[in-house]
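User: Good morning. I'm curious how zinc ion would be positioned relative to this chain. Could you predict the structure with it bound?
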Amino acid sequence: MLFTEHNPALRTKPAGSIEVICGSMFSGKTEELIRRLRRAQIARLDVEIFKPKTDTRYDETAVVSHDQNSIHSTPVESSSAILLLGANSQVVGIDEAQFFDDELPEVCTKLANKGIRVIVAGLDMDFLGKPFGPMPALLAIAEDITKVHAICVRCGNPASYSYRTALSESKILLGEKESYEPRCRSCFAEG
Ligand SMILES: Nc1ncnc2c1ncn2[C@@H]1O[C@H](COP(=O)(O)OP(=O)(O)O)[C@@H](O)[C@H]1O
Ligand SMILES: Cc1cn([C@H]2C[C@H](O)[C@@H](COP(=O)(O)O)O2)c(=O)[nH]c1=O
Ligand SMILES: [Zn+2]
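Assistant: Good morning! Here's the predicted structure, ligand included:
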């Protein structure tokens, strides 16, 4: 009997999968997402990249890192649009996943089941340290999870939390260094 796991040449189906890149703000999620997507483009794979329409922080269309590294993307209003627009590609990238609706995990599952490599980046926790939007469900169904860390601006230890310095209490508040700082557990708890 021939086992395809030992002989990749015999595999006929593309292996779809879900990868999640998570962590605090400034931890390098977008950079890591862009790195993986660029490599897929170099491999001449058909790549589609999406972000929520509401995320206009650096650019209307591009996915942009805090260091101004960028890649073209399609802003969409809901996760159902990702299913429609991404279904014929080989690799789908999604940034700022925490802002999407609760259907995003189901959308990613459908795409992965079609053989598509789905790479999702997002904040695992909000400014209160609570799980953010569809991220916990995405982490549960992912084949591969990468948790990246920023540097705590208070003490220099690895940071997993996004501390909000702005006064707003609303869950969604777009911003960067003027409103947030990455902190380690202990500095986050000090408030
Ligand atoms: N406190 C910090 N810790 C780590 N990186 C920081 C910090 N402040 C600024 N940066 C910059 O942010 C970059 C990461 O940006 P980005 O990939 O957009 O992060 P994320 O998407 O996780 O918010 C780092 O490469 C670094 O240059
Ligand atoms: C913690 C937290 C963050 N946000 C916003 C702030 C930024 O616009 C994005 C995160 O971007 P990054 O690429 O991870 O730096 O999310 C928010 O709206 N609510 C929060 O609690
Ligand atoms: Zn600290």
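The mean pLDDT is 94. Residues 23, 25-31, 65-67, 150-151, 153, 182 surround adenosine-5'-diphosphate (ligand 1) (CB under 6 Å).
Let me know if you'd like a different ligand tried.
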